Amino acid sequence: MPAKAILSGVHFMSGDEAIAEGAIAAGCRFFAAYPITPQSEIAERLAWRLPQLGGMFIQMEDEIAAIAAALGAAWGGMKAMTATSGPGFSLMMENLGLAVMTETPCVIVDVQRAAPSTGLPTLVGQGDMMQARWGSHGHYEIIALCPASPQEAFDLTVKAFALAERFRIPVLVMTDEVVGHMYERVEIPPEVPVAPRRKPRVPPEEFLPFKPDPDLVPPMACAGEGYRIHVTGLTHDERGYPAMDAESHDRLVRRLVDKVRLFPQEYTLYEEVALADAEIAVVSYGISARVSLGGIELARAAGIKAGLLRLITAWPFPDAALSRLAQRVQGIVVVEINLGQLSREVERAVRGQVPVHGVYHAGGRIHTPEEVFQGIEEVFRQCR
Questions:
Q1: Tens-place pLDDT, residues 226-271
Q2: Mean pLDDT for all residues in the chain
Q3: Which domains does the chain have, with CATH numbers?
Q4: Cα 136 versus chain centre, distance
Q5: I need a surface site. Which of 42, 85, 91, 324 has the fewest CB within 10 A?
């Protein structure tokens, strides 16, 4: 009996395994990676599963080659993914920019660990969040999703592939070691919608590879489909040919930014917990958001009305949601496993309406509920 592409039903699996299954369910049939903790379980799962489905797994010589292979596979017509952790994510940054410039749909998973450099390879961190936004050179927009459970690891990987096709961009799944390695219930539906690739609607002789539709996203013809394509990381015109002047560059980069920026309703995801009557809001993401719920329980037991805004979409940053939140609460606590990254975005978005306090550490462990409660208590006293 042939292997099933969608393993429908209830499973007990890790976040890394759920990412692999989410990719397969979303139509991914090409995965290239280099082994690195704590990502390797994604590669191990896909090395086993993809050949069963007529797909391809390649262990490349390094992470630079891995993302390059994924981009090439996408231009060959495949839905493609790569995955890594911090040091490998750094190596991928140049080709992340190439994916943006060439408008190549793909998914890149970063299972974050304690950093910088080799750091603590087997222990948790959330220190790659700013790198996810600004790690490649130049100005661009990127979409980054942050699962907080193995179930969301599955769901958001499916979502990432859909967004990659919708906007013709690389989409990041920014998970962390704890979510990647924890085992929980994951329910996989019998059917998962597979996002189609937008194809040309004109004859080959009329086709311009980078002429956008009204939503600023061009249809994509892949190699071997009968259309003439030219793909370059240089600034290019609608033919894909180099256009080496400031006016062409400004026009292209603005379109690459605006095709994402103008449609926030399609990718902005967050969850509100106990915010209806909250005086203090905790803002967090990934595993840190789950721990924060314990701190919120302690605060409410102590008579402080606290709630949670969990960021599911980290980039583009949900400015409007944070601005509205600041009008409802007296103070904000940001919990993340770094020394303050998305907290700066929170401060920028709230524009001084309320105080923002960070509960940080550099990595290697998750926060305790008591640490989160202490941060809530400190802001609560500050607001009195």
A1: 999 999 999 999 999 999 999 999 999 999 999 999 999 999 999 9
A2: 97
A3: 1-267 (3.40.50.970), 270-383 (3.40.50.920)
A4: 15
A5: 324
Q: How far apart are CA 198 and CA 228, in angstroms?
A: 16
> Which DSSP symbol is given to 266?
G
Q: Which pair of tokens denotes residue 116? A: 């910088």
Q: Helix, strand or coil for residue 271?
A: strand
Q: How far apart are the first and last CA of the chain?
A: 67
Could you tell me the two tokens for 13? 């699996």
Backbone angles phi, psi at 234, to 5 degrees: -70, 155
pTM beyond 0.85: yes
Rounded mean pLDDT, 155-160: 98
**Is the separation of the CB atoms in 33 and 108 below 8 Å?**
no
CA angle 243, 246, 228 (to 5 degrees): 20
- How many CA atoms are closer than 13 Å to the CA of 36, on its beta-carbon side? 29
**Contact predicate 178/287, CB 8 Å:** yes
Q: Is the alpha carbon torsion for 304, 305, 311, 314 positive or negative?
A: negative
